[in-house]
Specification:
Blueprint (H helix, E strand, L loop, with lengths): L2 H9 L5 E12 L2 E10 L7 H13 L8 E8 L10 H5 L6 E6 L5 E6 L1 H7 L2
Parallel strand pairs: 2-3
Antiparallel strand pairs: 1-2, 3-5, 4-5
């Protein structure tokens, strides 16, 4: 799948997603890390369902078959420098969505060993 197709599939996962800004895999130590950043329309908070839909689409179309860690950040579609607070949305993900889950001070959500099936169920 081309980078363009990947970006398009992630962006089409939820009507609030304006565009995919980043979708890339890199190796950190022994781990394959998949970083995804999107721009989201509207002033309303990001919901757990929206977050789960975007994460599901990202994992379904990931450039590598397995991902040890998924990093995710949401920006405002109106101001790409504005990072959206996804803390409440992340708290609403099922505990089985990943082995570990951490939201850092820069708004980056880190999911260790993300579980695609749990995210699929949460995106419904």
């Amino acid at each position: 799948m081309s980078q363009e197709e990947l970006f398009s599939r992630i962006a089409s996962s939820d009507p609030r997603v304006a565009e995919t800004l980043v979708a890339s895999v890199y190796t950190s130590g022994f781990a394959d890390v998949y970083a995804v950043e999107v721009a989201i329309f509207g002033p309303d908070p990001v919901t757990s369902a929206t977050l789960a839909r975007v994460l599901t689409a990202a994992l379904e179309h990931a450039p590598k078959e397995s991902t040890d860690k998924l990093l995710f950040r949401a920006h405002s579609a109106d101001d790409a420098d504005a990072i959206l607070d996804i803390a409440t949305a992340a708290e609403g993900l099922p505990p089985t969505a990943a082995d570990t889950q951490f939201l850092d001070s820069t708004g980056m959500l880190s999911l260790g060993a993300p579980d695609l099936e749990s995210l699929r169920r949460a995106s419904q």
